[in-house]
Design brief:
Blueprint (H helix, E strand, L loop, with lengths): L1 E12 L2 E12 L3 E5 L6 H8 L7 E6 L2 E2 L4 H7 E4 L11 H11 L4 H14 L15 H13 L5 E5 L7 H12 L6 E5 L3 H7 L2 E6 L2 E6 L1 H8 L4 H8 L2 H5 L1
Parallel strand pairs: 3-8, 3-9, 6-7, 7-8
Antiparallel strand pairs: 1-2, 1-4, 4-5, 9-10
Helix pairs in contact: 3-4, 3-5, 8-9
The chain binds adenosine-5'-triphosphate.
Pfam family, one: ABC_tran
Protein name: ABC transporter ATP-binding protein
InterPro entries: AAA+_ATPase, ABC_transporter-like_ATP-bd, ABC_transporter-like_CS, ABC_transporter_ATP-binding, P-loop_NTPase
Length: 244
Amino acid sequence: MTGIAIEGLTKRFRERTAVDDLHLSIGEGELFALLGQNGAGKTTTIRMLCGLCAPTSGDARLNGRSIVRETGAVKEMINVSPQETAVAPKLSVRENLVFMAQLYGASQAQANERADEMLAAFSLADRAQEKTKALSGGMQRRLSIAMALISEPRILFLDEPTLGLDVRARRDLWKLIEGLKGKITIVLTTHYLEEAAALADRIGIMHEGRMRVVGTVEEIERQTGAATLEEAFLQLTDTEEVSA
Ligand SMILES: Nc1ncnc2c1ncn2[C@@H]1O[C@H](COP(=O)(O)OP(=O)(O)OP(=O)(O)O)[C@@H](O)[C@H]1O
């Protein structure tokens, strides 16, 4: 079954077209990585899919629900771990989780229970009482993902989940994300090509608002004639080559 069906999604800011007639189908339970240079249109795409900004034209269906006509239903089934880690720095780790669960309608008892589950699942239990600002960057990103999962979304958007993390923290997060594979639909944006290759079922490379290629690493290499994903990426995002 299709988790996300994008049909002609377009976003213009004045004369700049940030996302240009995007068509894409992502399977339910698939982990899809969206790659592209700064300004390629990844975040704008995710913001539209989350109902955070309205498309100029086109539509997308998330588990059958339109982001244009059923924005409320879409927001109920998704969650986002945004680029800027969305944790409240003065609240404790546990308070952040409880607060988020309650925001999504859980009772105090349910929120406490869910928070304990997430603390255990994300190896944050021994830091539960600490203020979030005392955590390392990697732990904050982990908490941010735990907070996004506490509402039990069917679709999760991870915007550059490992940005700025050291090698070990990145690997730890990869393990965690791998553990989610197949359970929920995940759209991940990243600038780390090895991250996309390690985690994603399929990869899409955007450039100047357009989707240039979609496929597995092998399919992308075959389609572009490149020896590596990096070579394919550089080829597809070379402005002179693309516009020539
Ligand atoms: N609110 C806005 N107003 C005007 N232009 C915008 C707005 N948001 C995004 N843009 C422009 O749209 C284009 C796509 O931006 P977007 O943030 O989607 O790219 P991105 O691929 O996520 O980049 P990055 O990797 O840097 O996060 C850019 O040219 C950007 O300047």
